[in-house]
Amino acid sequence: MPSEVLPDVIARARRGDRAAFGELYDVYLPRAYAFCRKYSASREEAEDLTAETFEKALAAIDRYEDRGLPFSAWLLRIAANSIIDRARRTQASPLRDDDLARLHDDSFLAEWEEAYWLLEHLATLPEDHQQVVRLRFYEDQPFTEVARRMGRSEGAVKQLLRRALRLLRGSIGGEDEPDHG
Amino acid sequence: MSRIMDDDRDLDGLSESERRLADDLRRLAPLMREQESVEGIVSAGFRQALRDHLVYGEEVAPHPTFARALREHLLASRPIAPAAPLLLRRPVWISAMATVIAVLAVLLVSLVERPARPAFAIPRTTRADLLFNLPTSEILVRSMQATVSLIHPRPASPYAGRLSLTAHALPLGPAAVAAYRLGPPPRVMAQVHRLLHIHAAARRIRIDETDWIVAQDGGGHSGRPVHSLAISEATGEVIYHDRRNFQLPHANHPLGAGQAVLAARRWLTRLGWPGRDMPLIGISIVPRAPLLREIALGWRGVRASAIPEATLWVAPNRSVIEAWIWPPVASRTTLGAIPTSEAWDEIRQHAVPVVIAAIGHNLKVPGTGGVAHVSVAEILVTTLHHGAYLVPSYRFSGRVLLARHPHPATWLSFVPSTQ
């Protein structure tokens, strides 16, 4: 199951509990790293940016306030600022204009976070359930094509997609928000 | 978009929330595709090093940014072989990972389903072994001996009163467990002068049928502080005392936790242990010595052990003034395990000792309590002629209420878990 943290972990981390910060690190490292990797030329650069992001987060966590902004979005904002700063500083891997605009845009960060969260849940589904979701939504294929590529009837594919959506909904859990932080 | 939306009308039977989820998937699909195309797997080494750095303030390795800057600086004047394009590298990387995962999976399945014939025989665990692994009460040592560790001067004392303990719904326990044989005594003594600046010649002494090799400066009538190293020839146990830095007149704070861990790791590495890779399992202040940090490090690859591989006291000037160390693991084997209920019977029938934390040695009042936690931990078992072993055991613990005591106390017991 995708990991999420309870609010009390964030509260403990804010009070200087390093073990609690370790729990946050364990949960959010993959998505922070993936975000940094997207805007890095190499794995080494992504690791540097990820380390910088968590160091800044550790230094500032006592000032983090939950004003409806999930912890993960706060963390991605730090990561985005680090990416922008590094691009300015080094000129080694300049950002494209559209990337720069995205990194300044908080709504983009929220969408990135939401997409990552959905992806984590999608990865928990059985393989054929994932495949039908990917063909239908990623590749934008009509049911006839999805059915042909999966070697099933159109009705069977529709039934599989219904089950996939139901399972995914169950995995996400009710009407939860994408992040508990 | 419209084609799919029209098509979706045929997908009847969805709830409102499922329909909203379908809309979200459609909206976020481009970003999800982007994320899946990112090479987003974090290397295990980086993950652990950064975690240690953040949580324990450890500088196990140079900060990644610094290391990278230094490397770039050092390599700047030399031709660097161009890296293979990502698209070429990825299949190689994926196939290597797939191979590793497949091998691990096969190993795991073979270990879980069929405990292989043990690679070595584990020794019988005695009552003395069990007591040795249970926590001791705080003990004041009045005279220092090279072969007695201040960290663990003597075994625990079993509770002498009658305890009535109960257990509800015990977990079944694992089908198989791992045991480990520790390596031979470390070859430190030959270099004791160079490594630790102990000038005395090493000599052999026998205590309770065990031969020790001891090198000691100071102590006795010399008037100089004790500085000694003792190694058990039977088990490889290492005991180090250095009283030269015990009283530091200008120190009024213990060393920072991260710096103390770093000092401990460096000291161990110098002596030949894998100090950098040993898992950190505890940082505390030494009881009655508020300026000393106690650092405990475990065996590499061993999940939990009752006794750490290395426990060191670090002074404010970064010097190690006390150490209690065991050899690294030399080999591992897998054995079938008994169920926890069978182990619990041993406790119920008083066949194994139980200790109660922070209770006077002479207390004998009856008590009642229950099991709160059961886990598997390796206990250290020593032999006279065949070295030392880590033997898998069930660790039972819980709370007990003693007669005439207002507050519950914690009880603890180990039961070997092998068949």
Can you walk through the features of this model?
The complex is a heterodimer of chains A (about 180) and B (about 425). Chain A is mainly alpha-helical and about 180 residues long. Helix content of chain A is about 70%, strand content about 0%. Chain A contains 9 helices and no strands. Chain A has helices at about 5-15, 20-40, 45-60, 70-90, 95-105, 105-120, 125-140, 145-150, 155-170. In chain B, the strands form 2 sheets. Chain B has an 8-stranded antiparallel sheet, covered by helices on one side. By secondary structure, chain B is α+β, with helices and mostly antiparallel strands. Residues about 60-65, about 75-95 and about 110-115 of chain B have low confidence and may be disordered. Chain B has 3 domains: about 1-35, no CATH class; about 125-140 and about 155-180 and about 335-419, Lipocalin (Beta Barrel), CATH 2.40.128; about 140-155 and about 185-330, no CATH class. In chain B, β13 and β14 form a beta hairpin. At the A-B interface, α2, α3, α6, α7 and α9 of A face α1, α2, α3 and α4 of B.
The domain count of chain A comes to: 2
How much of the sequence lies in strands of chain A comes to under 5%
Oligomeric grouping of the chains:
heterodimer
Poorly predicted ranges of chain B: 59-63, 73-93, 109-115
Helix content of chain B: 25-40%
